[in-house]
Structure formats: C-alpha cells, structure tokens
Design brief:
The protein is an alpha+beta fold. Among the domains are: 47-154, Jelly Rolls (Sandwich), CATH 2.60.120; 194-238, no CATH class. It contains two helices and 15 strands. Strands 2, 4, 6, 7, 8 and 10 form a six-stranded antiparallel sheet that branches. Helix 1 runs antiparallel to helix 2.
Length: 239
C-alpha cells in the first residue's frame, strides 16, 4: 500500500493582494474624478432664471456660452408634446433693439427636472458671446400646463463624459478588486500538494542488485523484491 505525505501548501502569491490593492486605489481615484465632475456640473448649471408666462423681466447671463431654455409648470408633471413654439419667447440684450434678439434653436434633448416644486422640460438652446443683462419677453402660452419659462446654463459634455467614465470605472474596478482579494484569501489555504518523491512504494532498486527496493518516502529501506521473492538487503549507503 502506498502512503503519501504532504510537503507544503500551494498558495496564490501574495502579489495578488498588491494587485487587488492597486485596483482598489484606482477605483477610489475614479470615484473622486466622478465626484469632482458632478460638483462641476452643479456649478455649471447655476441658478435658474425664471420668468412667468405671460411676463417680461431682465435676467443676467453672467457667462458666455450655451444656455438652455426650459418650459415650466407649477402643477403638471406631464410635459410631453411641448416644443419651442408652445410659448413665444424673445431674448434681447438690454439697450438693444428687438431686431438684435438672440436666436433660439430647437433642442434635440428631452431632459426634464423637478426643482423647487417646478416641473421643467428642455425645448431650446441658444448661445451668447457677450455676458450681461438681457430682457426676456414671454407671451401667452399655447398650452395651459405652462406657467413660465426658465433659463439655465448648458452642461459641458466633456464633464458629463468624465462623470460617467469615473463612476462606471470606479464601480468596475472596486468590484474587480473585491473579487480578486476574496479569491486570493479563500484559495491561499488550499489542499496540500503531494511530492512524488515523498510517496512510499516499491521502485526499481537503484543499486541494481535486485529488481525492486522499497522507498518509505524519505529513504531506501532493506526490503527488496525479486520475481516471486521478498527479502532483506541493506542498501549500499548503509553498508
């Protein structure tokens, strides 16, 4: 009968713990990037400038760039079917004639929001090159759901991309780090590996004086075997 003796445990290298830690660090970096990008989006949007419909007011657009025009309702959350033609709006720099009004372009976006008990829907976009005061005139809405309009800054697409990539990458890397760490932890106390050299049994006699000699797992013994005959013969190292 053969006997086996364990030599050592086969364990994953501790290097995998360092790999897991590196992935976790990268995940934290991605989540920080997402947080910074989210804060930047909030800062970009800034406060809404609201004007009742119908009505007229002066609004300050303090930065050059792209802005979004929203139609708002104070009581209806359903704002489907609205577009830039639902409420006639004119935006003119203060001190300029009506012929110098800002061109509004129909928006391809369908973003909506709920802020301060107002429901809003994006309908148009426009770009200004000169920050300052603008007079906005809002005529009678063609839809009874509309209570006014609001203007907010357009979000930077690059910032949105950084937010999505940072958040998605952070989650993926964190899950990968967690799984790798757990797998390494669970597999390190694995089953013992058997060394063939430590398995006891009959083997060809290295002295060639007999056909077989018994190896007990650590040394050659005096037990020998020839065809049909078992005997005793100390190995040459012991003579």
């Amino acid at each position: 009968m053969l006997a086996a003796e364990p030599v050592r445990r086969v364990r994953p290298s501790r290097l995998w713990y360092w790999v897991s830690a590196a992935l976790a660090t990268a995940a934290v970096g991605c989540l920080v990037l997402a947080g910074v990008s989210f804060g930047s989006l909030i800062a970009q949007a800034g406060p809404f400038r609201r004007v009742a419909a119908p009505g007229q007011a002066e609004v300050e657009l303090d930065r050059a760039g792209e802005y979004v025009l929203y139609l708002e309702s104070s009581f209806s959350e359903d704002l489907t079917g609205l577009d830039v033609n639902t409420v006639p709006v004119r935006l003119v720099p203060v001190g300029m004639g009506s012929s110098d009004h800002v061109q509004l372009s129909r928006s391809s976006g369908t973003s909506t929001y709920t802020v301060d008990w107002y429901y809003g829907r994006e309908v148009a976009r426009f770009t200004i090159d000169d920050p300052g005061l603008y007079q906005i005139t809002v005529w009678e809405p063609r839809d009874s759901r509309i209570s006014g309009v609001a203007i907010g800054r357009a979000t930077d697409r690059a910032t949105v991309i950084r937010l999505v990539v940072g958040l998605g990458g952070g989650v993926v890397l964190f899950v990968a780090a967690l799984m790798l760490g757990l797998i390494t932890l669970l597999r390190r106390p694995s089953r013992p590996r058997l060394d063939p050299a430590r398995i006891a049994g009959w083997r060809p006699d290295p002295s060639r004086r007999h056909l077989y000699r018994y190896w007990d797992g650590t040394r050659w013994t005096e037990h020998v075997s020839d065809p049909g005959v078992v005997g005793y013969d100390p190995p040459w190292q012991q003579r």
